[in-house]
Design goal:
Layout: E1 2-3, E2 10-15, H1 19-31, E3 34-39, H2 51-63, E4 70-79, E5 86-87, H3 90-96, H4 98-105, E6 113-124, E7 128-140, E8 156-158, H5 170-176, H6 178-195
Parallel strand pairs: 2-3, 2-4
Antiparallel strand pairs: 1-2, 4-5, 4-6, 6-7, 7-8
The structure holds inosinic acid.
Residues 18, 74-77, 90-91, 94, 116, 149-153, 165, 177, 179 line the site of inosinic acid.
């Protein structure tokens, strides 16, 4: 991690092509004094039941091209009554049956509980790979609501709220999302590592 040109702002690379994620991470970075710089790389995404394994495999591939401090994230929506589906297959399910398809699978289902899970894998040239996780519980709405965010945001209502993620502004989603929790855990770790006089992380 390098000190940026503007005082205490740090720079860190994010390997992703997902515009929704990039926007959220950049917003999270601003509130944590971290300049998140998106990098687009060709990589293969493996299939696994374990988000951490998918993210780790992506990070290892990216480390062949990128020698600096960077992170990748893999995330998914886990619906209790569907035994965790779509989970690690969320991206594929979103592209195929989409939000309306998931609502159809949930029609007549009383247990609407679900969670979003995020796994970040951080790569540090000296210290290798570190895994950070974040999650948020909530419920699946009965219809799609809102136009903000991305992916399954229009059908996810975080616990303690009445609006879906897509009805919230970016700042509000960033106070409580799975992604925000994983990101803050990573930033806390980076600050501690940096402060404890680790010369290069
Ligand atoms: P991946 O992490 O890029 O593999 O994407 C996982 C998929 O999960 C995305 O394409 C979205 O459909 C869904 N997803 C992950 N995080 C979120 C979120 O914060 N809001 C809505 N959908 C999400």
């Amino acid at each position: 991690m390098r000190r940026g040109e503007c005082g205490e702002v740090f720079k860190i690379f994010l390997v992703s092509r997902n515009e929704g994620k990039i926007k959220e991470f950049r917003g999270l970075g601003v509130s944590e004094c971290v300049d998140v710089i998106p990098v687009s790389l060709d990589k293969v995404e493996i299939q696994s039941d374990d988000l951490a394994l998918i993210a780790l495999y992506s990070a290892v591939q990216a480390s062949l091209y990128l020698r600096d401090v960077f992170f990748v994230e893999d995330a998914g929506l886990y619906i209790t009554s569907l035994k965790g589906f779509p989970g690690p297959y969320s991206s594929y399910v979103y592209k195929t049956i989409g939000v309306e398809g998931v609502l159809k699978l949930m029609s007549g289902v009383d247990d609407r509980s679900a969670s979003f899970e995020s796994v970040i894998v951080l790569h540090c040239p000296r210290q290798g790979f570190k895994v950070f996780k974040g999650s948020v519980r909530g419920t699946i709405s009965f219809e799609a609501r809102g136009s903000g965010g991305f992916g399954f945001d229009p059908i996810f209502i975080p616990e303690g709220h009445t609006k879906t993620f897509a009805e919230m502004d970016l700042e509000t989603k960033n106070t409580l999302s799975h992604r925000a929790r994983a990101f803050r855990a990573m930033v806390d770790w980076l600050r501690t590592a940096y402060k404890s006089q680790v010369q290069e992380i």
